[in-house]
Amino acid sequence: MAGCAELPLGWIAWTGKLPNGRTVQNSGAVQKSFTLETPRGPAGIQLTDPAGPPSSLLVLGHGAGGGTNAPDLTKIHDTAVAAGLRVALVTQPYRMAGRKAPAPAAHLDEAWTLVVAHLKQPGLPLILGGRSSGARVACRTAKPLGAAGVLALAFPLHPPGKPEKSRADELPREIPTLVVNGDRDPFGVPDGGGSVEVVIRPGATHDLRKDLAGTASVVLSWLATNHWTNTV
Q1: If you count Cβ atoms within 10 Å of the first and of the last residue's Cβ in the chain, which end, N or C, has fewer?
Q2: In what order do the strands lie in the sheet containing 57-61?
Q3: Domain boundaries in the chain?
Q4: What CATH code is assigned to 4-225?
């Protein structure tokens, strides 16, 4: 492939097609996939750079039993790369091992923290995010990792049918945080306040599949407002 000789080892020139065949209109971006050893086993990372210098780094984690190919994560990845962000999709060690039952929260946070510490760069704003369980991990680790912002997709406020078991205290009220939840999410919708902005997507459930373009537009607007994109 033309130009590959000038890329860092392990990177490929991305001409609009991901390794899984999915097409993205972002010619010139660069992507690589690799694993990183953590105390909880190897984590998987798919790292995509935009065509030009990245404006910030967005690290996204998956839901408890899902993967980084979830429709909302896929759409946000593509939108953010097109807007000039470097985006990392992180697969937790338990999913890399083929297990669906999530590891304990402390184990998730430990593996995530090591991965983010490996990826972050001085001078590049760090935004942590994810969907569902991945959103909780991002929220819990944002402050110690020095995140500039948090993107929480389908934040699971409580287990279905158990509103008394609220997880609202995990939201980092002192860091710019965008929560995007569906109004039909059985896991509930948290309240905003302080630096936490909550956007409710009409008709959407926990998977946020309805109107992905609209959800991506909300996220892009938030990223741009905080000057984390290369777009005007």
Answers
A1: C
A2: 12-13, 30-38, 41-49, 86-91, 57-61, 126-131, 149-153, 177-182, 196-201
A3: 4-225
A4: 3.40.50.1820
